[in-house]
Write a structure and sequence with these properties.
With about 475 residues, the protein is an alpha+beta fold. Helix content is about 35%, strand content about 20%.
C-alpha cells in the first residue's frame, strides 16, 4: 500500500524542515506542468492538471541524497524539476509523486581557466552562467532558445543542443564530468578529465536520462574564449533540397560555421519577406572565432553558396535573427487562445532528410483537417546529416479531449513518417512523456538494454515514471 499524502508530507518535513516542503496550492500548480503544449492548451480551455503530493527544495547533494533515500524506502515516485522549460512533459508529475525542485541548487562553483571548464550546481540558469562567463572573457558556446529559462542539470538530462552547435557541439560534446544521486540515495561522481578509455563512458547514462535513473547534482562543462571576429551572410535559396545540398557541401568540405540555418519558403515569407521572393527559402550563416578565422571561413562558404546559384542578401537577415531568435511570445499568445502551436524536431542522414521533410508536410496537410500551417527549418548540421524542426499550428475544437485527439494525430504522423524514412524521432528536445511510447520502435533491438539499465538503477521504477520509457502496456497513438 502506498503511503498517504499526509504521511509523505510529514516525513519530508521532519527530514528537511517545514520551510523546504511546499504544499500550498500555488506552488503545486506551478510544478504540475512544464511547457508541454498539450496540457497548456487544455489548461486554456479549463482543464486542471493533477497536482503532486508536495514540492521539496534541496540545497545540496547531501540533501538530495537524503530525500531520495527516504522516498525510495517509502515507495514514493519522484520527479526532478529544473527550469520547467521542457516541451514534452518530462517534468510533469503524477498525483502520487513528489517533485524535487532543484532551483535552489543554483551556485556557480568554480571556473578553471587553465583547463577551460566551469563547474555549477544543476539549478544554475544557462543565461546567468553565460553572462557570468562573458564578464570574465569566456562563453559557454551553448545557446538553446530556452537559454534564460533552462537550467544546466536539465540541459544535460534532456541532451540539449544550442543554436551554435555546428561549431561548438551539443551538450554531450560540452559535458566534461558530473555528480549524480542514484534512486536509493547513493552519490556517484565522474571525474574531470579531457578523455577516458576506461570502459563505457558513464557520462552517457546521464545524458538524456530525464530523471529516470536519478538526479544530477553537479555539472562541469567546457568553456571557450570569447570570439573576436565574426562573419555573417544570408542567401536566398530556390528550394529546401537545394539548401540542404549546399549545407551538406559545407560540412563535407570540413567547414564548421557556428550558425547554419535553412528556413523553408513559409518561414522565409513570414520572417524575411522584405528580402526574399515568394517561394524562396533562406539560408543564414554565421562564423566566429579568433582573429582572421571567421573571414577565412566566410570566404569559403560564400564561394560554395555562389557556385550553387544562391543569391546573397547581406548580413541584415542574420542580424535580425540574432536579435529576435529567443522571442516566443507569439507561441504563448496562440496557446492561451486555444490554438495548438508546437515544434517537433527530428534528424536523419543527408540521403534521407529531404524526403522526410516533404513526406511529413504532405501527409499532415492531407490527413489533419484541423492543421493551419506546417513549416520547417534545419538548424543543427553534421557531416553525416542534419536536423529538421517542424513548426506546427492547428485549431482544434474547444474541448480538452479534442485538443488531445488533434495533437496526437499530428505527432503520430510525424513520428511514424520519420521512423519509416530512416530518421530519429528526437534531435534535442528529448523524450519526455510524449515521445516515450515510440521508444521501442526508435531503439529497436537495443531497447532491451535501456530497460535493463532502468531496472538495474531504479528497480522499483520510482524515478520519473512514464518519462523516457513508456509505462507498462502504453502504446503509441494510432495515426
Amino acid at each position: 500500500m502506498s503511503p498517504s499524502r499526509d504521511s509523505v508530507v510529514a516525513g519530508l518535513q521532519s527530514l528537511m524542515g517545514h520551510d523546504r516542503v511546499a504544499t500550498d496550492t500555488e506552488t503545486l500548480a506551478k510544478r504540475s506542468l512544464d511547457t508541454w503544449p498539450l496540457p497548456l492548451v487544455q489548461l486554456a480551455m479549463g482543464a486542471q492538471p493533477a497536482a503532486p503530493l508536495c514540492v521539496v527544495r534541496p540545497r545540496s547533494t547531501d540533501e538530495v541524497a537524503r530525500v531520495l533515500a527516504h522516498l525510495y524506502r517509502q515507495g514514493v515516485p519522484t520527479v526532478p524539476y529544473g527550469g520547467g522549460s521542457g516541451v514534452l512533459g518530462g517534468a510533469k508529475p503524477g498525483p502520487d509523486s513528489v517533485v524535487l525542485d532543484l532551483g535552489e541548487m543554483s551556485r556557480i562553483l568554480s571556473l578553471d581557466e587553465d583547463n577551460l571548464t566551469v563547474t555549477v550546481q544543476p539549478g544554475v540558469f544557462l543565461g546567468k552562467l553565460e553572462a557570468w562567463l562573458n564578464e570574465r572573457g569566456y562563453i559557454t558556446g551553448h545557446y538553446p532558445q530556452s537559454i534564460d529559462v533552462a537550467q544546466l542539470g536539465g540541459l544535460v538530462a534532456t541532451r540539449s543542443a544550442g543554436q551554435f552547435s555546428t561549431k561548438y557541439g551539443n551538450i554531450e560534446d560540452l559535458l566534461v564530468s558530473l555528480e549524480a544521486v542514484l534512486p536509493d540515495g547513493q552519490v556517484m561522481r565522474i571525474k574531470d578529465v579531457p578523455r577516458r578509455a576506461t570502459g563505457p563512458d558513464l557520462r552517457h547514462i546521464w545524458l538524456g536520462s530525464e530523471g529516470a535513473f536519478g538526479v544530477i547534482t553537479e555539472v562541469t562543462v567546457k568553456v571557450f574564449p570569447r570570439p573576436v571576429d565574426r562573419w555573417l551572410q544570408a542567401y536566398a535559396v530556390p528550394t529546401m533540397r537545394t539548401g540542404m545540398e549546399v549545407i551538406h557541401r559545407f560540412l563535407h568540405d570540413g567547414w564548421r560555421p557556428a550558425v547554419v540555418r535553412l528556413h523553408d519558403e513559409i518561414e522565409a515569407e513570414r520572417g524575411y519577406a522584405s528580402v526574399v521572393n515568394k517561394g524562396e527559402s533562406i539560408l543564414l550563416l554565421l562564423s566566429e572565432g579568433p582573429e582572421g578565422y571567421a573571414q577565412a571561413e566566410g570566404r569559403a562558404l560564400d564561394r560554395t553558396a555562389l557556385a550553387a546559384g544562391l543569391h546573397p542578401l547581406g548580413p541584415a537577415p542574420v542580424e535580425a535573427w540574432l536579435e529576435h531568435r529567443n522571442d516566443v511570445h507569439e507561441f504563448e499568445q496562440f496557446i492561451r487562445a486555444g490554438l495548438i502551436v508546437d515544434t517537433i524536431e527530428v534528424s536523419a542522414r543527408w540521403t534521407d532528410i529531404a524526403g522526410i521533410y516533404e513526406r511529413v508536410a504532405e501527409r499532415l496537410r492531407r490527413e489533419v483537417p484541423e492543421l493551419i500551417v506546417v513549416s520547417g527549418h534545419s538548424s543543427h548540421s553534421y557531416p553525416q546529416g542534419t536536423n529538421l524542426y517542424f513548426i506546427l499550428g492547428a485549431q482544434p475544437p474547444r474541448n480538452p479531449a479534442e485538443v488531445e485527439r488533434v495533437y496526437k494525430a499530428i505527432w503520430s504522423r510525424v513520428m511514424e513518417t520519420t521512423l519509416a524514412g530512416g530518421g530519429t524521432i528526437s534531435h534535442h528536445h528529448g523524450v519526455g512523456k510524449m515521445r516515450a511510447p515510440w521508444m521501442p520502435a526508435e531503439l529497436g533491438t537495443s531497447y532491451k538494454v535501456l530497460e535493463s539499465l532502468k531496472s538495474a538503477l531504479d528497480p522499483k521504477g520510482l524515478m520519473n515514471p512514464g518519462t523516457l520509457l513508456p509505462l507498462s502496456g502504453q502504446e503509441p497513438p494510432r495515426p
